[in-house]
Amino acid sequence: LGRCGQTGFANKTDLAVTNGGGLRETIAKDAPITKGNIIAVLPFGNTISQIKVSGQNIMDMFTKSLGSTLQEKNGQPVLDENGQPLLEASGGFLHISGAKVYYDTTLPADSRILYIEIKNKETGVYEALDLNKTYYLATNDFLAAGGDGYTMLGGPREEGPSMDVAFADFLAATDLTAYAVVNPNSRTISILSTKDSDGDGYTDIEEIQKG
């Protein structure tokens, strides 16, 4: 989505998202990838769409994405790799490109977002989300129309290619060894809002915000 969004529309894309519920299968490692594999992952025939959104729309979108209830086992919260309570699986959870979203699952669902950065498409530098700025968002046509409860989206959109074709083109043109090790906590980043790792009186998230 992110790569297609830089070349397939009249305006370059600032960030891209797709819902986890639209990804229906896993591709086996170290095995040939067939057209059938791609269709199994993306079986719904969705197309890539680009819409204009405000920074506030983006904030609301990620608030919904990270608003799931928390996982529990034997009455105790299940923790993620950072020791934070882990969210229940949700088809509406957004997989993202071009943004970093810092969140704290110990907070109420509507207050979990701590900080959002958007990658500057010209410089490659991540910059703080501006709630009043207009951004170009690439996503699938289902979400672009407000599906999965993303009612903050919708409105006019520019249509792009089908997601399965874009994915196949990406695979054909990409050195997949670059993805041999993937950090799942590099774009949606689970962090305790009160944590001060170096004990200097500033929380980790405050230091991230200061750059």
Structural account:
The protein has six helices and eleven strands. The chain is of the alpha+beta class and 211 residues long. The radius of gyration is 18 Å and the shape is globular. It starts with a helix and ends with a helix. The relative contact order is 0.24.
List strands and helices in order, with pairings.
Layout: H1 2-7, E1 15-19, H2 35-41, E2 47-54, H3 55-65, E3 72-73, E4 76-77, E5 94-97, E6 99-103, E7 113-119, E8 126-128, E9 134-140, H4 141-144, E10 157-162, H5 163-173, E11 188-190, H6 204-210
Parallel strand pairs: 1-9, 6-11
Antiparallel strand pairs: 1-5, 2-9, 2-10, 3-4, 6-7, 7-8
Which features does this protein show?
211 residues; alpha+beta; four-stranded mixed β-sheet; 6 helices; 11 strands; globular
Quick structural gist:
The protein is an alpha+beta fold and 211 residues long.
Question: Helix tally?
Answer: 6
> What would you call the structural class?
alpha+beta
Low-confidence parts, pLDDT < 50 over ≥5 residues?
A: none
Overall geometry = globular
Taking strands numbered 1, 2, ... along the chain, how are they ordered across the largest sheet? 5-1-9-2-10
In percent terms, what proportion of residues is strand?
15-25%
Helix content: 10-25%
Average pLDDT works out at 94
**Radius of gyration of CA atoms, rounded to a whole number:** 18 Å
The helix-strand sequence is HEHEHEEEEEEEHEHEH
**Beta strands, count:** 11
Q: Compute the separation of the termini in Å.
A: 28 Å
* Quaternary assembly: single chain
Major sheet details: 5 strands, mixed
